[in-house]
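Researcher: Here's the sequence for the chain we discussed earlier.
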Amino acid sequence: MKNVPIIGVGLLFSETIQEGFNPKDIYQSPIQTISHAQLQTELGKISKLITAMALKGATKDELKRAVRHSMVIIDAEKHQLDYKQSAADHGISELLKKYQPEIYK
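Model: Thanks. This is the structure I predict for it:
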């Protein structure tokens, strides 16, 4: 799979929506799963990961996984979405190990 230049990462959001990915359909939780403070922390983490991935030549498929997870995080507080299940489903820990190994030292 071809690497995505950093400028093309924004287009992945649109492409993901066009493909029909709707976090509310998949990750709806009956209880509140994230506080506002934790939401801000998680948004920072996923933003840094996506940036690192783009700069280090991640494939389009890898970036799409991170983008989908970021979409879940964005709506997690408002729509009670299970962001932890999303992280597991999208292999975020694997992406962190690959593209931000300094976090795992």
